[in-house]
Input
Amino acid sequence: MKETKIIQNMEEKKAQSLKDLITVQAGSIVSKILFQNEAVSLTLFSFGEGQEISTHQSDGDALVQVLEGEGVFTIDGERHIVKEGESILMPHNHPHALKAEKDFKMLLTVVFA
Output
């Protein structure tokens, strides 16, 4: 009986750099879902310079880990620059947006209640 992988888009039993699993495409936002169900979502994103996601809200807490470059996150109207190796928590039901002033990559983990 063949086992079904739970985490997708990654090789098993191999050390990998998450930032190498997704590429930046100029003028685009690229996403790659690693896992998603009703309780949690893990998605890699890359943003070309100037790309943005407009203000919205989520039903889950969103934890962003910047893997490469830096992103500008606006939460409740307050601007935060988050750099490679740093993280930011965007609480559920709070308006937030993000913009790539430079190319960047991130891992987004959303946890739903």
About this structure: The mean pLDDT is 96. The domain at 22-112 is CATH 2.60.120.10 (Jelly Rolls).
